[in-house]
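Example record

One chain of 545 residues, shown exactly as stored in the release files.
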Amino acid sequence: MPEDDPLTAYLRSPEIARELLACGRRRGWHPRVPALPWRATDGYTGAVLVTVALEGDRGAEKVILKVTPGGSAEPAGYAAAETDCPPDFRPHLVLAAMPAWPMASGGVLTFQKLAADDVTGCRSMAELPSGAVAGACALVAGRLLRTWNPEPAIDSTSIGDVLRDQMGYGLAAGGSIRAWAREAGLLEPETPWVTLRDDGAVCPNPLLLARRGSPLDGRPVDVLVGRCHGDLHFLNVLLPLAPGGPLRPDGFQLIDLGGYSPARPVTTDPVFLMLSAIARGLHRLAPAQRQALLDHLVAPSGGRRDGYLGDVVDGVVAAVRETVAGGRRGWSEELRFQLRLSLIGVAVLFTSFSDLGPQVRWWFFRLAARLARGVFAELGVPVPDRAPPTPNPFHDPTPSGGGALVASRRPARPAVDRAVARAWRAAFTDPVAARAHLDAAYAELAGAGKAGAAPGEVCTRLRDLVEDATQILGGDDPGTLRLRHELARWTHLDGDAATALRTYREVAALRDRVLGPCHPDTLASARCARWPPLLDDAAHQRYGG
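Predicted structure tokens for this chain:
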């Protein structure tokens, strides 16, 4: 398709234009550029939203087309959001206009209905004047709990599970948090404590708190769970324009429901929205004002508010607490603690948004670390007097104007990344589904190996998958052990028989303990560990010959 074609020029991608035309041929309509176009960019994921006109036998319809990179669970998210939504909240959701279309490259085309039937008459929350941001954030946060989640359920879980849920796919071996943290040396088990150079505080390394075996991992906690958007930044909240007047926050509409979940911590969306407001305005504050705002988030009774961002914090926190307290179900104290956990997890996630610039990303790291120190103190976990000093590890260029937020990512591996992303999303609410998604990711890797991919490449990616499974399911979960068994096989195919033999023996011992000595999986690993060709190869590798 020529690049000067109007549709290609509008979508800014020949590939997207080809996929959209292919989808239309299959479904009986033809796409074109509308006379009154609309465009927005989702800076968190690099996704693009535009309006397109779809003309077919049943007439013409204008929809929002979203082009999402690989790793999306959007079709299921939209369907679940529509099914689960209480009637009173339905006007606040922009739902799917038709099923999504998977692209050959691994991306997804999704089609959303127009907000209020006139997206050009709406603006995102990013266009609110600063003086109106605090009130809008508080209003949206209150409605999310009061109307979308009028009766949240209580889930008895662990602190580690909550933190893993809040940091999400960013913690994956190919995720955006690990992309920078690995380079900074902050993922090593030898760095559980850090000294923040800006204020000298010794704090837990927040990046390690979500890992299995951390000091907080197995500690029990009761969490209020319910419907969750999962990516509630300012570009995903549209506000209608009053005729001849300002934007109307009371008519807000949520778009981009692909990450929807029916049972995540109810503090996730309000905290994400609040930190999005801070991310957009923090670069305008002087260092002393940034510090005051951080102190206010860590200890609201002792910090001082400074400008509209302090009002945003107070408004959102008050809206969440008052809504839950108003239900008189006795969970206010648990909610206070849950808010702190969500702040830690989402703040860590915000460290991965490279377009925020080094100072703002460092601010979010410090916020997570200081909040974690408070949690340790509350739980009576001792904090050492000294720890290695941690300077600001971020060095990417500061954007002009604090615009879009873009997560650092490794090169896309569409099918595997999609399955792993779904496993991380399901980790908190549905371990069975998470296990199935990890199995699907392995099936993609095994298929690549059978199709001719080098065993070494399969091993590298499979080690990442084992690491993800360990964090999502646990090191002795049958699903994790199954992946480790397969890793041993591919390791042998790659020529490292000694490591393969050691892995088979370790997996056999764990399966014996977890599944029992007579379980077929236990017997399979034990049989592989005694396989004569493997023993011969391992002996030759060790002794030569």
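Notes: The chain has a mean pLDDT of 85.
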